[in-house]
Specification:
By secondary structure, the chain is α+β, with helices and mostly antiparallel strands. The protein contains 15 helices and eight strands. The protein has two domains: about 180 residues, VKOR domain (de novo design (two linked rop proteins), Up-down Bundle), CATH 1.20.1440.130; about 200 residues, Glutaredoxin. Helix content is about 55%, strand content about 10%. The protein has a six-stranded mixed β-sheet. Helix 9 packs antiparallel against helix 10.
Length: about 375
């Protein structure tokens, strides 16, 4: 049982170490397509005490638990000190398990996202607590002499090495947090919002906007064939709807059509622009993104799928086929305009966001970072309203 605790302790050191290093470097750990780790890390609940990342406390707790188990493995169970390490370890594991459960509930109920590393940590801590319960019950029957066998020595030396190696491997796959602050000038507003330098609301299908009178502007550059865009879209929609009109939301295209896993990106963008001409732009996006519930492992929609989506919302299939092939078509020209904006403003990822309020500088960020960016006091105060 003690050897199990030793393994669990260093497994926890590895997991919490990855999260701690990512927080220290301000990067995101590898987390799969949904990027839930980044969204959880961006929430204020990831720093509940004194603004210190929760992962730091987890790392210290696991390191202490690993040291306790190593100590008992070396000296045995005879005497008051091993008993003290068992009692303290039991208390650490109990507090850690309670904290893990609370944080998991918060991530699911409040943030609506889950971090795979956090779930792994919660599982390890719960198993540690359960094993300490058994160890406490059985400790009276434990051999008094230290183990010091080959397996003990292998675990004592090998587990720290494996733990550090796991952290190093994960660190090689960290992704940079793409958040920056840039100067907001009238041309930025004109390009993103339309209506000339004043940035007034344009007429017609040129700009796709919700809540034109919102006090915080959120611009998304998205790809209709992007899994992350698909996953985040319903969350963005919900956030915009729940803002009570305070978020002015604008969508621009960044179809990554040169990538082989985005085969329908360009056709989908063109069809959405055609749909916009009859007031069905958002309906088309809702259909393509499928409320974010589509299987992330499913093949990406191809050109025919994008045309079928257009037909599904009432557009003529033959008309769509003809227009998306015409490079001079106004709908295709609007997609080209957005691609030019991507070059102009160094848009490099999907989804990528620009956020500003009033005449303040704008924040540019990618993916899940948008939720953390909107928690900046200069935006959060306005979104709470009077």
């Amino acid at each position: 049982m003690n050897r199990i605790l030793l393994v669990l302790g260093y497994a926890g050191v590895c997991v919490a170490g990855v999260l701690s290093l990512a927080a220290a470097l301000e990067k995101d750990p590898p987390c799969g397509l949904d990027n839930g780790c980044a969204r959880v890390a961006a929430d204020e609940t990831s720093r509940l005490l004194f603004g210190i990342p929760n992962a730091y406390f987890g790392f210290v707790a696991y390191l202490v638990l690993a040291i306790f188990a190593t100590y008992r493995e070396i000296v045995g169970f005879d005497g008051p000190k091993p008993r003290l390490t068992m009692n303290l370890g039991y208390a650490f594991a109990a507090l850690g398990t309670i904290a893990s459960i609370i944080l998991t509930v918060i991530s699911i109920m409040k943030i609506h996202a889950t971090c795979k590393w956090c779930l792994a940590s919660a599982t390890i801590m719960t198993l540690t607590l359960f094993t300490y319960m058994l160890l406490t019950i059985k400790s009276e029957k434990a051999p008094k002499a230290p183990a010091r066998g080959a397996l003990s020595m292998l675990l004592i030396v090998g587990m720290p090495v494996l733990s550090l190696g796991g952290i190093a491997v994960a660190a090689r796959n960290f992704t940079i947090v793409h958040t920056s602050v840039k100067t907001l000038d009238p041309q930025v507003v004109a390009d993103m919002v339309g209506g000339g330098p004043a940035g007034g609301t344009p007429a017609g299908p040129d700009i796709h906007m919700k809540n034109p009178d919102g006090v915080v502007t959120l611009v998304e550059f998205g790809d209709l064939d992007c899994p992350t865009c698909k996953h985040l879209y319903p969350q963005i929609e919900q956030m915009v709807d729940n803002s009570h009109g305070r978020i002015r939301f604008i969508f621009h295209h960044f179809p990554l059509y040169k990538k082989p896993d985005h085969p329908g990106a360009l056709v989908g963008a063109a069809v959405s622009e055609i749909a916009a001409e009859t007031g069905k732009f958002w309906e088309y996006l809702d259909t393509v993104y499928g409320n974010g519930d589509a299987d992330p492992a499913a093949p990406p929609p191809g050109p025919d799928d994008m045309l079928n989506f257009g037909q599904h919302i009432g557009l003529d299939r033959a008309m769509l086929e003809k227009r998306v092939r015409n490079l001079d078509d106004p709908a295709v020209a609007r997609v080209t305009r957005d691609l030019n904006l991507c070059d102009k403003y160094a848009i490099g990822h999907t989804p990528e966001f620009l956020i500003w309020a009033g005449n303040q500088n704008y924040t540019q960020c990618s993916g899940n970072e948008v939720f953390g960016a909107l928690k900046d006091p200069k935006f959060a105060k306005l979104l709470k309203g009077p």
